[in-house]
Amino acid sequence: MENTLSPAWPATRVVPKQRFDLPSLDPQAYTGLLTLRKHLGQSGLSLTHWDLINVHVSQLNGCAYCVMTHVAEALEHGETEQRLHALVAWREMPYFTAEERAILAYAEEVTLLPHRHVADAVHHEATRLLGEAYVVQVLLATVSMNTWNRLNIAQRKMPA
User: Fold this and answer.
1) Of 158, 160, 153, 155, whose CA–CA distance to 58 is shortest?
2) What CATH number should be reported for the domain whose range is 50-155?
3) Which string of DSSP letters, residue by residue, matches 100-125?
4) Where are the domains of the chain?
5) Per-residue pLDDT tens over the stretch 84-119
6) pTM of the model
7) Half-sphere exposure of residue 114: CA atoms within 13 angstroms, side-chain side
């Protein structure tokens, strides 16, 4: 039976042209962003937690480049496809620990700041489960990913 509800995918895809290349236009700013990324990589933040933050924040922001990049990284780091597919609906899925749920809730609150503030209950639960110092690492990772998302979306950076 033919699908009459939506048109077939066009034979030629329209891929927006990248607007500019940040590293070549402002290498000093780019280096500063990489310095924070390097710091996070050397912090106590678990690689699994960092991967979950990077993928989910990128999903929330609709950054195609970052979703593709960080899903591939997470898989390389040993994350499962099942959990990555479930990440968009993590609240309804049984695959995430209490700590991961606190991290994802906190990352969502920080990412969606234009719509609401970080709820005290979310902050308190994350701090209770993870400790204050670890929540700061989660915050920095979330803010960093939001920055990369916004830069890549504004540049129209496309995945390969």
Assistant:
1) 153
2) 1.20.1290.10
3) HHHHHHHHHHHHTTTT-PPPHHHHHH
4) 50-155
5) 999 999 999 999 999 999 999 999 999 998 777 899
6) 0.87
7) 3
